[in-house]
Design a protein that fits this description.
three-stranded antiparallel beta sheet; mainly alpha; hpI Integrase, Chain A; globular
């Protein structure tokens, strides 16, 4: 029988016979995504046919490895797998050695003509480079490095799509948080307070289970995220009380299995409270950085430590947002001007 894919549990498997492969194969493809499984089957068949035709004269694997073949080697996360499914029809049959940085940069505009340059980087350049560079370590194919899009390129693309990218985020504040909590359900209310006072990411927060809590000592065990290891996080007294009175739901402290289950009710709470919609990441992690550094004057090194940033530059550059408008700048100039005019004059002799 020819090679076919089938589902066994949640994962996809492949089975059958084909020229170039000795005997009958029946093994897991190591993916939950049907589109990825189909791509892997095509690549397995291609390699088998090549071996059947050329035998010992077949080119080396590194020379002939295609992008589809490299994708088979790469253990992609679900989000990256979805991005790669759109990329593979474009460059899947190309050999890794023939894929140049310019081609990868240009592919973003082809696949997402109305998206921002940051989207091209995140959904095309980053996953493509990850696949190719993983193949380098696995099979010895060439590395690839793709330069970042310039500010000029971002501006040109923003004009073309009629929308500005990198819009300044609105951070959470106590005023916003209190209004939100007055309308949110008890789980979202506790979640918002927890993220604002710890800087935890939404992805980490929804994974917290009752076993992670150590409320007697005012702390919890925060799951790993974005390269940061799991670790203990100290809680404010208000958060300890809130969590102590929050019954677990769906085996999770905050009652949600995935972060995307949070957003609908979050938007509804903002609408009912008649406040600006601030998404969880901005309300929490951006609010944490801005509240401590800008509003309360805590030193960046301390904030970085407790917010689990590797350097004080990160919260300063990305997670702090000024609450002042242009009037405050004008006032500062006026105060400086008045201070200069009222300063005692010194004679030229210095006396």
């Amino acid at each position: 029988m020819p090679l076919e894919i089938y589902q066994r549990g949640r994962k996809w498997w492949i089975r059958g016979r084909t020229d170039g492969i000795d005997g009958y194969i029946n093994r897991s493809l190591g993916t939950l995504d049907e589109a990825v499984a189909k791509t892997k089957r095509i690549e397995i068949e291609r390699k088998a046919q090549q071996r059947a035709i050329l035998g010992s004269e077949a080119p080396t694997e590194a020379d002939e490895l295609t992008f589809s073949g490299a994708a088979v080697l790469y253990d992609a996360k679900p989000a990256d797998a979805k991005f790669l499914v759109k990329v593979i029809p474009e460059i899947g049959n190309m050999k890794i050695k023939d894929i140049k940085p310019k081609l990868v940069r240009d592919l973003g505009k082809k696949l997402y003509p109305k998206a921002a340059c940051d989207t091209w980087r995140r959904q095309v350049v980053t996953p493509v480079c990850a696949v190719i560079n993983n193949a380098h370590h696995e099979k010895g194919t060439p590395l690839i490095r793709v330069k970042a899009y310039t500010a000029k390129e971002r501006q040109e693309q923003d004009r073309e799509r009629g929308k500005q990218s990198r819009v300044e985020k609105t951070p959470g504040s106590w005023e916003w948080l209190n209004a939100f909590r007055a309308e949110a359900n008890r789980y979202q209310s506790a979640l918002a307070l927890f993220m604002f006072t710890t800087g935890a990411r939404i992805t980490q927060s929804v994974l917290i289970e009752p076993k992670h809590l150590d409320l007697q000592n005012g702390r919890l065990w925060l799951p790993e995220a974005k390269g940061h290891p799991a670790q203990w996080v100290d809680l404010t007294t208000e958060v300890v009380v809130e969590l102590a009175n929050l019954p677990p739901r769906n085996k999770r402290v905050f009652g949600y299995q995935h972060r995307w289950g949070v957003y609908k009710a979050w938007k509804t709470a903002c609408k009912n409270a008649n406040i600006e919609y601030i998404p969880p990441h901005s309300a929490g992690r951006h609010g944490f950085g801005t509240e401590l550094i800008v509003r309360q004057g805590v030193d960046p090194a301390t904030v970085a430590k407790h917010g689990r940033w590797h350097s004080p530059r990160v919260p300063l550059d990305t997670y702090t947002h000024s609450d002042k408008d242009a009037a405050s700048v004008h006032d500062a100039f006026q105060r400086g001007r008045e201070a200069e005019f009222t300063k005692p004059k010194q004679s030229k002799s210095g006396k």
